[in-house]
């Protein structure tokens, strides 16, 4: 699994997840449980990850949509 990005923004996370799923990329959101447990301060970002073989395609899809992320 490779990390695509980290964010504390649940709306952005939902948008990116839908965008990638629509492009046929399976995604996993990590740290959701920890983020919920820590409360509303947003100190723990959630991580969006994809399979190693889907990484290049996922990055391309997000860049074409104008999204900033790290590799």
What is the element layout, followed by pairings?
Blueprint: E1 2-7, H1 10-22, E2 27-30, H2 32-37, E3 46-50, H3 55-64
Antiparallel strand pairs: 1-3, 2-3
Protein name: DUF2007 domain-containing protein
Organism: Azospirillum oleiclasticum
Pfam families: DUF2007 (PF09413)
Q: Please, could you describe this protein's structure?
A:
This protein is an alpha+beta fold and 71 residues long. It has one domain (2-64): 2-Layer Sandwich (Alpha-Beta Plaits), CATH 3.30.70.790. It contains 3 helices and 3 strands; from the N terminus they run βαβαβα. A 3-stranded antiparallel β-sheet has the order 1-3-2. The protein starts with a strand and ends in a 7-residue tail after the last helix. The mean pLDDT is 85. Pfam families: DUF2007 (PF09413). This is DUF2007 domain-containing protein. Residues 1-66 form the DUF2007 domain.
């Amino acid at each position: 699994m490779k990390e695509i990005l980290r964010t504390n923004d649940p709306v952005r996370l939902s948008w990116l997840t839908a965008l990638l799923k629509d492009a046929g990329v399976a995604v996993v959101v990590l740290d959701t449980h920890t983020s919920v447990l820590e409360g509303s301060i947003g100190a723990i970002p959630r991580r969006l990850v994809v399979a190693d073989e889907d990484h290049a395609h996922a990055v391309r899809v997000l860049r074409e949509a104008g999204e900033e992320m790290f590799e």
